[in-house]
Design a protein that fits this description.
The complex is a heterodimer of chains A (363) and B (515). Chain A is mainly α. Helices cover 74% and strands 0% of the residues of chain A. Chain A is built from 15 helices and no strands. In chain A, helix 4 runs antiparallel to helix 11, helix 6 packs antiparallel against helix 11 and helix 8 packs across helix 9. Chain B has three domains: 238 residues, P-loop containing nucleotide triphosphate hydrolases (Rossmann fold, 3-Layer(aba) Sandwich); 178 residues, Rossmann fold (3-Layer(aba) Sandwich); 79 residues, no CATH class. Classes of the chains: A mainly alpha (363), B alpha/beta (515). Chains A and B meet through helix 9 and helix 10 of A and helix 11, helix 12 and strand 20 of B.
């Protein structure tokens, strides 16, 4: 729970003011620079020129139309995952089961994609909302367990991940398997009307990108300025206070956790409908955990999940290029990501830095 | 006269401008049981912290067997033969009794802990002092009374000459209390000097050789037990000047707002007190003060009225309407209840959130702050700024976290928020605890002013506060109502005795056997 309290700390960060926006950005920026420094040292000891690596990273992610499409493709689920995690944080909850909700959302989204006949414009919308509902339902279980039995939502939601995999894979294997694919477990293709179209000239960047950005902004505004968002934030900041003040804290927690699950479910559905155009077993490369990275980097700000998601999208897209052109394993990207997160979580880093700078000035 | 084992001369301790101990003189003779009594906040614990090395006094001397000592930290005090048993146990639940006792200096061989040896030592220690424990039992499995014995054994393990016990009976049942008193007599027979802090007069009379009474940071009485009586002690504890203070004029009483009938509750959490058949009514235009030593059910009572604790039986009605089955903070607030809670940080505020968010709570539901599903942020800021101004919350930076305010300003912020809804019923718990004098005066004015339109229930461990503000006083003891009276009907003796569970007329202990 330490990580959670670290993040919640900032009641309503990111609500407008330029000064406050800068204060909220400080930590992620410091952490990114510190993470780059660690990675640079590591590269130097390996005898690799770090500048080459960072150039390759940027070239791969932003240097070509294809690179940009790859960055945006990864940023879409990452932004959504960051928003899902942060919405939970706002209520003081830790949705560790994001992956399960994504998985089930992916299955239900594809199910609606190949199982139902709808007009082209409507079909993907219904399928994605259906996937969202599946994710929300999957989040409702741990939320209720927490509310009525006091079970930690961290543990129960994480464990339900395995159940989600089991249920989805079982149903696909039994009823919806694509008979032409023997090696991989995947469902039949979704109907053409259900496919989420790509709007980019190259690659596969679905319209979901716009939905992700819009959702991040909408949630940001809801949390900051809507009554319900205010009550959720207060429940997260101090549940005893919210309860004493007459806020139905149980309901607010359940609502926030289900909203988190809903967004997670939409990630799965959009992967199924946009990228794979069917349900593919183990389709999720770890968006659930990446969501925590995005949320940490965004430092409690919902709108901040957009730049944070884009940043991690750049790392993901650029990593391939590093491996391809320099022969350096793309795990260097994971080390970079990991060290950035370590520094973001190092809450006291800023005060150490300030003291360090002050000491330098005294010299 | 022999040299006292402990002598304090002019010991003074200040916290900011607050004087917790004002030039205290105290003599404790070797081999006696010395009781120190006084209300909460009288300075007993501060004094004992000085004696056990937890806090250095600002002025004055501490003499041990006639020689001045500087007790820089608990280790120094310990090596001088002074050990303290704290009110809140400092024990490890997952360790065994023996491990807990020897934790300060465990028997070791070649750097390894000798469990057998520890168990043998603890068994011997328990035998010597007549404190029955099972050294192998896990502490978490022990009853509270046994845990206390473990805490005492832990202090005795270092073989001190002086043992200080801070309110040792606060958490014990009457039976456990009886057995503890016997054990303390046994310790005295073994030559230990015992300093015993309490506010229970019955225990003092039963146990002590000498008693020192403290009040508002000063010693008001030091006397042999044979030369005093419970009412004498009660007077010294509560003080005469209290009743001399001018009371505000009464205002005409209006409708009955709250009625509690035969409310009983079970202790649901650890340390909670059972409410036993409590009936109280509150009318518009009056302040009902609930007096009692802390932990006698006052907190539980206001939690019931605030909708935060469900009674097991009994009836609670607001303006004649039964709300027992719908008790929740939301219900009570809909019916015009405002609540200044006991713990402003744990309950009264969301300390990490900005002051703005803390001030608009409640007001956010209706116009002008709330408009439809949204908050009108401009209106919210105007509203919060007006609260900050009229209650003089400093600094009134709405964007800063509420937790950055001082205690007094946090309390003013809570008052501002709670009173701004023009409540009909106000529950105020320890409204001035930890608040400076200026803010306290302001809070008193607010409460007296609000009394014209509302009914107020006040609990406080500060008797002066209760006596000064209340139109009616209800005394609670062990979850029951001992008496209900107008302030002028209560002499300090009477009040002190009632709070100690003694009915003055009968002159004997009442109902204390029940738990």
């Amino acid at each position: 729970m330490t990580m959670q309290s670290t993040i919640e700390g900032g009641g309503s960060i990111g609500s407008g003011h330029p000064a406050r926006a800068w204060a909220a950005l400080q930590m992620p920026l410091i952490a990114t620079v510190a993470g780059l420094a660690v990675t640079t040292v590591l590269l130097l000891t390996m005898g690799v020129n770090p500048l080459d690596v960072y150039a390759a990273l940027l070239r791969g992610a932003l240097g070509s139309l294809y690179g940009i499409s790859s960055t945006l493709r990864w940023a879409t689920p990452l932004i959504l995952a960051g928003v899902a995690v942060t919405v939970g944080f706002k209520a003081g909850l830790f949705n560790a089961g994001l992956s399960g909700q994504i998985y089930l959302g992916g299955f239900v989204g594809s199910l609606i994609g190949f199982g139902v006949l709808l007009p082209a414009g409507l079909h993907p919308v219904v399928a994605i909302l259906g996937g969202g509902l599946a994710g929300a339902f999957w989040a409702l279980i741990p939320a209720l367990l927490r509310r009525y039995l006091g079970a930690s939502e961290i543990v129960t939601s994480l464990m339900l991940w395995y159940v989600a995999i089991g249920i989805s894979d079982f149903l696909v294997r039994q009823f919806f398997r694509d008979p032409t694919s023997a090696a991989f477990l995947m469902s039949v293709k979704v109907a053409p009307s259900a496919i989420l179209p790509s709007f980019f000239p190259v690659g596969n960047v679905s319209l979901m990108l716009f939905a992700a950005v819009a959702l991040a902004l909408l949630m940001s505004r809801l949390m900051a300025n809507a009554k319900i968002g205010y009550e959720i934030r207060m429940t997260g900041a101090n549940p005893a206070f919210a309860h004493y003040a007459g806020v139905p804290t149980g309901k607010r927690m359940i609502l926030a956790f289900c909203a988190s699950g809903f967004i997670a479910g939409m990630i799965g559905a959009s992967e199924s409908l946009g990228i794979n155009q069917r349900f593919v077993s183990q389709f999720d490369p770890g968006f659930g955990f990446d969501g925590f990275l995005v949320a940490l980097l965004a430092n409690g700000s919902l709108a901040g999940c957009i730049p944070a998601g884009l940043f991690l999208g750049i790392l993901k897209a650029g990593g391939m290029e590093i491996e391809r052109t320099l022969g350096v394993s793309k795990s260097i990207i994971w080390i970079l990501q990991g060290s950035i997160i370590l520094f973001v979580s190092a809450y006291n880093l800023r005060s150490y830095l300030r003291r360090f700078v002050a000491a330098l000035k005294r010299r | 006269m022999a040299t006292p084992i402990i002598e304090l001369v002019g010991v003074t301790k200040r916290f900011g401008t607050f004087v917790a101990n004002d030039s205290i003189d105290l003599r404790v003779n070797a081999g006696e049981i010395h009781a120190i009594v006084g209300e909460n906040g009288a300075g007993k614990s501060t004094l004992m912290k000085a004696l056990s090395g937890l806090q250095m006094p600002d002025e004055g001397q501490i003499l041990l067997r006639g020689t001045e000592v500087v007790l820089r930290n608990p280790d120094v005090a310990m090596s001088q033969g002074i050990a303290m048993v704290h009110q809140h146990f400092s024990l490890v639940e997952s360790l065994s009794v023996a491990e807990n006792v020897v934790i300060s200096n465990p028997p070791r061989r070649a750097g390894l802990f000798q469990r057998r040896m520890a168990e043998k030592q603890v068994a011997a220690l328990a035998e010597t002092y007549g404190l029955a424990v099972n050294p192998r039992q896990r502490l978490g499995e022990c009853r509270v009374g046994v845990q206390q014995r473990v805490e005492i054994l832990k202090a005795l393990y270092r073989n001190p000459d002086v043992l200080i016990l801070d309110e040792p009976t606060a958490v014990l049942t009457p039976q456990e209390t009886q057995s503890l008193l016997g054990q303390l007599r046994h310790l005295k027979a073994r030559g230990k000097t015992i300093i015993f802090i309490t506010h229970k007069l019955k225990e003092v009379m039963a146990l002590a050789d000498r008693v020192t009474v403290m009040r508002a940071g000063r010693v008001t009485l030091g006397v042999e037990i044979g030369e005093t009586s419970p009412s004498h002690l009660a007077t010294a504890m509560v003080g005469h000047e209290v009743l001399a203070g001018r009371r505000p004029e009464a205002v005409p009483l209006g409708d009955e707002l709250v009625r509690l009938e035969n409310i009983c509750s079970a202790p649901d959490t650890e340390g909670a007190t059972r409410l036993d058949d409590v009936s109280i009514a509150l009318r518009q235009g009056e302040i009902v003060g609930i007096a009692g030593v802390e932990g006698n059910g006052q907190s539980e009572l206001i939690e019931v009225i605030a909708g935060m604790r469900r009674p097991r039986s009994g009836r609670l009605s607001l303006r004649g309407r039964d709300v027992t089955t719908r008790l929740s903070p939301a219900t009570m607030r809909r019916h015009g209840v405002a609540h200044i809670p006991e713990d402003r940080i744990a309950t009264g505020l969301a300390t990490p959130a900005p002051l703005l968010d803390n001030l608009i709570m409640g007001a956010h539901r209706t116009a002008p702050v709330g408009s439809g599903a949204w908050l009108d942020m401009a209106a919210a800021r105007t509203y919060a700024a007006s609260l900050v101004q009229s209650f003089d919350v400093r600094p009134g930076n709405l964007a800063a976290p509420a937790g950055s305010l001082s205690g007094g300003n946090m309390q003013k912020a809570i008052f501002a928020r709670e009173l701004s809804s023009d409540p009909e019923i106000i529950i105020a718990a320890h409204p001035t605890r930890g608040v400076d004098i200026g803010a306290a005066e302001f809070i008193y004015e607010q409460l007296l002013e609000r009394r014209r339109q509302a009914g107020i229930i006040l609990i406080s461990s500060d008797l002066d506060e209760i006596l000064r503000l209340s139109d009616r006083i209800v005394v609670m003891y062990h979850g029951r109502i001992m008496a209900e009276a107008a302030p002028h009907e209560l002499t300090p003796e009477k009040l002190g005795l009632l709070m100690a569970g003694i009915t003055p007329d009968a002159g004997r202990v009442d109902r204390s056997g029940k738990q």
